Amino acid sequence: MKKVLTTCSYCGCGCNLYLHVDNNEIVGVSPSGSHPVSQGKLCVKGWRGFAFVNHEDRLKQPLIKQEDGNFREVTWAEAISYVADKLKQIRNRYGPESIGVLASARCTNEENYLLCKLTRTAFGSPNIDHCARL
Ligand code: SF4
After folding, report:
1. Residues at CB less than 6 angstroms from ligand 1
2. Which CATH class name applies to 2-54?
């Protein structure tokens, strides 16, 4: 079994942990004893929050919903282009303040900063909030 040192992705505390990997599957977790945040401890999300990685319902590529209600698998480039076109249509029709963005505690500070820039400068909307307030 291999142990892979990584950062917990569940909140902004950034605890370090080891993923126990067997046959390319995560089978367990243990905290890093030397990390200044985790100090050998993890909360329940850090200990038990890895089941989604190999869950059968996990989305593995972008999907676009068709008019008949079915989903079509698309590339990331097609999905991003589709979303960008739809956001432009909404902004042009209803104004920039019609767009709102919810950031995530699971993103890094840098990712949340970039999301803020995207919302305020590219979309022109002041409407950005954080999932911790939901
Ligand atoms: S183990 Fe808990 S406190 Fe530490 S980063 Fe993960 S979710 Fe946050």
Report:
1. 8, 10-11, 13-15, 42-43, 45-46
2. mainly beta
